[in-house]
Amino acid sequence: MLDGNRRWAKLRGANTEQGHQAGADNIANLLGWCDQAGVEVVTLWLLSTDNLVSRSPEELRPLLTIIENAVTGLAATRRWRVHPVGALDLLPQQTALVLKQAEADTADVEGMTVNVACPYGGRREIADAVRSLLQEHAAMGATLEDLADEVTVDHIAQHLYTKGQPDPDLVIRTSGEQRLGGFLLWQSAQSEFYFCEAYWPDFRHVDFLRALRAYGERNRRFGS
Predict the structure, then answer these.
(1) Is 3 one of the catalytic residues?
(2) Residue 150: pLDDT above 70?
(3) Residue 117, SS3?
(4) What angle do helix axes 93-105 and 57-77 make, rounded to 10 degrees?
(5) pLDDT (tens digit per residue) in 161-197
(6) Fewer Cβ atoms within 10 A, N terminus or C terminus of the chain?
């Protein structure tokens, strides 16, 4: 959870756009550290569905451009497989096309999978998964009664944005906030959480290593 760009900018007397750009500039560093640590899947929350409503058009326009450029840059490296997750239909057409193109351009890359969550909301994802499940069964001629008798947790999981991927072992949030805010609500049910005081643009390799060390020291009981 790449949080704190705006507060980072305010602390330095910079504008919001500069804060978002500084955050985008730190993404490749994080992915490099994840590569070194042998991480197979990383999810970057770049924009929430709530942001589309709560942020002003004056902030959203440059932010979307920064996201487009960042995702295009990640794809151009050919180091990682880019996978957009979120309600792409809520985005401006240009931004949605850029995300889809990055996915197409890296489909054959064998490196780490990078989920680009934009725009993402955990409740929206679960609603979309249930809607997709209903549509799938309706297309097969099944009734709601049939589905009610058969639906399982696994059925819903197969319709999430991250279907086919493992659930996250570790969720890191920067900026000192200690809440999920809707991030991967379904997938993180048994994840470990690490909250870092640093604002995202200031997140360093040593902070990443501390998160991994804290994770390694925990006794994971998976709900038992």
Answers:
(1) yes
(2) yes
(3) strand
(4) 10
(5) 999 999 999 999 999 999 999 999 999 999 999 999 9
(6) C
Distance from C-alpha of 107 to C-alpha of 101, rounded to nearest angstrom: 10
Model pLDDT for residues 29-56, shown as the tens digit of each residue: 999 999 999 999 999 999 999 999 999 9
Question: What residues contact 216, with CB distance under 8 A and at least 6 apart?
Answer: none
Which residue type occupies 128? D
CB atoms within 10 A of CB 81: 21
Contact 192, 170 (CB under 8 A): yes
Q: Which of 100, 110, 42, 49 minimizes the C-alpha distance to 71?
A: 100
pTM of the complete model beyond 0.85: yes
What the block records as the tokens of 126 is 């679960």
Question: Considering only CA atoms, which of 18, 69, 70, 63 is closest in space to residue 44?
Answer: 70
Q: How far apart are CA 146 and CA 143, in angstroms?
A: 5
| Cα gap 48→78, rounded to integer Å | 26
Domains of the chain with CATH codes:
5-120+161-216 (3.40.1180.10)
